[in-house]
Specification:
Order of helices and strands: HHHHH
Pfam family, one: PG_binding_1
Number of helices: 5
Helix content: 40-55%
Organism: Micromonospora parva
InterPro entries: Peptidoglycan-bd-like, PGBD-like_sf, PGBDSf
Structural class: mainly alpha
Distance between the termini: 20 Å
Strand content: under 5%
Radius of gyration: 12 Å
Protein name: Peptidoglycan-binding protein
Length: 112
């Protein structure tokens, strides 16, 4: 499933659902937030870190599944309304990796 806006200014990423095979800047934002969340919920060792390449592949899907389990929401590997809420609400930067921090800040401002 893939859909996406031309820019976040015209249609926020949260208005769309993303899954395996999806592409674009909203997927890149999902990956940036997932990388930070995976640091705080121990999913990183199992599912990540996820490449911020804008392609929703198996690594991204595995990270999303771990995040969904940790958040106690339906586990389907897709980023829909519930998962967007978890990504945008629980997303927080912890650590000293300045690139991850910059990626996270961009992702939150772009997608959430």
């Amino acid at each position: 499933m893939t859909a996406g806006p031309a820019s976040a200014a015209t249609a926020p990423c949260r208005q769309y659902s993303y899954g395996y095979g999806g592409t674009g800047n909203c997927v890149k934002a999902i990956q940036g937030i997932a990388n930070v969340l995976s640091i705080t919920n121990a999913a990183r060792s199992e599912a990540g870190p996820v490449a911020r390449d804008g392609r929703f592949g198996s690594q991204t899907q595995a990270a999303i599944i771990k995040i969904q389990r940790a958040a106690g929401i339906a586990v389907d590997g897709y980023v829909g309304p519930q998962t967007w809420r978890a990504l945008c609400y629980y997303g927080a930067f912890w650590g000293h990796d300045m690139q991850a921090k910059a990626d996270y800040r961009w992702a939150k401002s772009y997608a959430c």
